Amino acid sequence: MFLQRIGSKGIRLGTLFDRAAARHPANFVILDHDLDIAPGLGRRVTLTELAELVDDIASRLWSVKVRPGDHVVVHKSDGFDISLLACAVARTGAVPVLLSPKLDGATVAELLRRVGQPFLVTDQDKLEHHLPGEVFDLSRRVLLASGEHEGATSFASLAGVERVPAVSMPIDHPTLITHTSGTTGTPKLAVHTGMSFQARYRPQATVVRTAVGRSEPIAVHVSFVHSRMFTAMPISILQGHPLIVLRDDDPRTVGDLFTQIPPGFIEAHPNTFLRWEELAGDPRGPLANVKYFSSTFDAIHPRTVNTMLKASRRKGRRFAQAYGQSEVGPIAARTYSLKDGADFNGRCVGVPFPGMTGVRVVSRNGAPVSKENPGFIEVRSDGRIVTYLGEHQRWQKQVNDGWWRMGDLGYRTRFGCLHLLDREVDEIPGVQSTLEIEDKLFTRLPELVEVIIIPGPDGRAVPVVCTRDDVSLDELAWKTAVVDLPALGDPVQWRLEDLPQTATTKIKRLELARLLSAGPAG
């Protein structure tokens, strides 16, 4: 869209930290973990130090013949250095391909085949305990971010190589490859360009710039391999915000850190905010300084939004929710305040960004689209990926005259607000919206930390529930909560850690339904 294109120079990941350090040399990044590629650097690092690190790692990559246009797969133990490695790879003109640390070895091997003899950056632990030996045959060369392994080259052994200048690539050239969530099978490899990333950056950067002052810290708990990290990170460091990067979302450690360095803006996964509800009762007030909470990855429940807003003591505090997808970036957004309460309509996901994104809802049966007859949600944005690597025909199937099929069902009100009811693959006959039911159950049962409505073996809607501290579900309270809801099967209680999850903590609903059908053996 035209406001995404004007004067765009592309995201330029390879020089991102150079440009940020030139503007704000003494600004810093706070980490809750050590970097595998630079364990001695510490957990409070200046932008100048990070620019130096990215330059150094890029030079080491160049020394082993990584060149413009090559693919470099990064699949290592979790940490912010995954994102830094992506910047270092981009600095050489090569294309980083980021694979989640949560992916199993067989899936990683399959994606290596799809890429076609890439360089592989991993670590000793992954090679010894998680990856099959065939990754050596599937890779041009295996590099280690940490540790040692026969047949692999460690970054440590490349220390002191000659520095090389950054390579500038055209803005329409692939700049990063991420993978989709994999909720419906093997993940797809989404190809982003410098232009498409910059198009995603602009609407989000505008929101942050107007939301909080430059000196206020921004805290980010986002999967390091997700495309969202590569807009959240540039926004923070280019605008001059101190950046708090979290690998873990444990409420105790997060509460300690936020008490010491109170963030003014937090970006996190919906399930992370759900877990942080207990921070609202922390007497130290770790969330008291937050002006804006933000989430973009999945449906977030009204109870969680209201709990976060109550925990802040800032005037004018807001919770911003964006609707989007890995393939297209943020498309529509809305904000919530305390006056919306804990039982607002969470299915309303907002309106498009004027001049930047577009939304339409297409009828499935020729009848007018409405809440009772939801249609296919399709969107437009210059932030759209240019292909799925090795699966271009699959990409083409989702494009219709420039409109991208999201795989979601919904409708728009006469005021233009988009309402999301369900994923197409999650639709259950006789249930208007599983997400709406889940919202209501969360609001009515405070002890719930997760509830997922999936089809049972007989096709009937079955709630899978998880409770705080795994306490037994109160049968009477449950019956009271569902009395006015569509007919549901008996609830099935699971431990939260047993639910199949993606890299962004989404629940894999299809996999969960399969496990439920398999019974105890599954």
TrEMBL record:
Gene3D superfamilies: N-terminal domain of ligase-like. One of its GO terms (molecular function) is ligase activity. It comes from Streptomyces pimonensis. Keywords: Ligase. Residues 17-385 form the AMP-dependent synthetase/ligase domain. PROSITE patterns: AMP_BINDING. Pfam families: AMP-binding. This is Acyl--CoA ligase. It comes from the Bacteria. PANTHER family: LONG-CHAIN-FATTY-ACID--COA LIGASE (PTHR43767), NONRIBOSOMAL PEPTIDE SYNTHASE PES1 (EUROFUNG)-RELATED (PTHR43767:SF1). SUPFAM superfamilies: Acetyl-CoA synthetase-like.
